[in-house]
Amino acid sequence: MIESMLLFAGITTIFQRFLPQTKQTELSEQSFMVHMQKDSRSVIKTIIKLVITSYQVIIIIIFAVILSNTLLLPVYLLQISFPGFFAVLFAAGLGLLGLFYTRQYVHVSQAQHSRSGIVSGMSFLGFRILKNTLFILSILCIVIGALIGIAFMANFNVNLLENSGILMKPGAL
Predict the structure, then answer these.
(1) Residue 127: which of 135, 116, 137 has the closest Cα?
(2) Using CA atoms, how far apart are residues 159 and 65, in angstroms rounded to an integer?
(3) Containing domain of residue 52, as a range?
């Protein structure tokens, strides 16, 4: 999770450095062929931006390596060694997260001047869990469907190549 956030930060930095940042008024005043004109200063600026961005990405990678080696891997090894303790810790964390969400949903409903109490918070939490479960299941079904489609197409392609004589049919395994 932390590596993903650091990777996202690095990619965002790269995009901010290299994507053109022009305002709408500048776009309307410039010709659409401006990008075709050579400017020696823009090459130097691009190289400088590339060096700065590379330096920032390297710093992010170094911090990710340090973080994963000093914190994440030891916690993972502890989790492998003591699965019962971490199962209880995980269940307690889920319970606390549920209480936190319920409390926050109650505050949101009170901010909207609704007369609902903890029942509203619990129903919002249940809706959120249902929504996330359906989202995960739909993504899982899409991935499984894509994999089945790829396997079907590969099998069809091999059979077609074997029947046309391009590939030799294998002997018994």
Answers:
(1) 135
(2) 47
(3) 1-17+41-84
- Diameter of the chain by CA atoms? 75
- 61 with 134, same domain: the answer is no
| Choice between 26 and 87, residue whose per-residue pLDDT is larger | 87
- Say how far apart CA 74 and CA 77 lie, in whole Å: 5
Secondary element (H or E) of residue 151: helix 118-163
Tell me the pLDDT tens digit for each residue of 30-44: 555 555 556 556 778
| Beta strands per DSSP E along the chain | none
Residue 3 lies in a domain: yes
pLDDT, position 165: 86
Entry pTM: 0.44
Distance, in Å, from the CA atom of 3 to the CA atom of 13, rounded to the nearest integer, reads: 15
d(CA 58, CA 6): 11
Taking the C-alpha atoms of residue 16 and residue 64, their distance in angstroms, rounded to an integer, is 21
Top-confidence residue, 2 or 133? 133
Q: In which region does residue 82 sit, left (phi positive, over 0), alpha (psi from -120 to 50) or beta (all else)?
A: beta
Please tell me whether residues 75 and 132 are part of one structural domain: no
> Token pair of 147, please?
């994999």
